[in-house]
Amino acid sequence: MNNIVDNKNQNQRERSGRRHHLKMATRSVGNSWKQLSFNLIKRTFSTCSPGSNPSTTVSKSKRKKKKNLFEVAHFLPNWGIGFHMAKTHWSGVAYQITKINLYKDGKHGKAWGIVHKDGVPAADAPKKISGVHKRCWKYIPNSKKTEQITSLPQPEPEVQAT
């Protein structure tokens, strides 16, 4: 008798399980049809089709990441020592790099330099540069070359006796 009751309960569980699976299957089919029809309506009434104007998605390029002082100095000989660098929003002010204390990752550290205003040294002693990790540094290309040319001794014109 006990065996019959167990079989009956098991049969009921199996039937309810089948019904549950059937309900879930019809729900998922119903939802997928609703979703497909919604997507179709959405595509037909949209103002622009995705295939007609692909340049809008491509033209949204990311902004170029600006560089901190160490990332700029990385490409210069001897890590930029002796070269002039300035922040992009500075006008007429630059630092001549004299010393760099670089951390292991190569993108962080400390730097010292001599301040130059309008190409003329404003101080004799180097001072620690603040804001070296901010992403707004640029290399001033002609300053190193002009200093080397002006620092070379100029030959004095020979005076001829007549």
TrEMBL record:
Any one GO cellular component localisation term in the record: ribosome
PANTHER family: 28S RIBOSOMAL S34 PROTEIN
Organism, scientific name: Helianthus annuus
UniProt region (Disordered), positions on chain: 1-25
GO molecular function per UniProt: structural constituent of ribosome
Feature: compositional bias, Polar residues: 1-10
Listed name of the protein: Mitochondrial 28S ribosomal protein S34
Keyword Ribosomal protein tagged: yes
Keyword terms: Ribonucleoprotein, Ribosomal protein
Top-level taxon of the source organism: Eukaryota
Species classification: Eukaryota, Viridiplantae, Streptophyta, Embryophyta, Tracheophyta
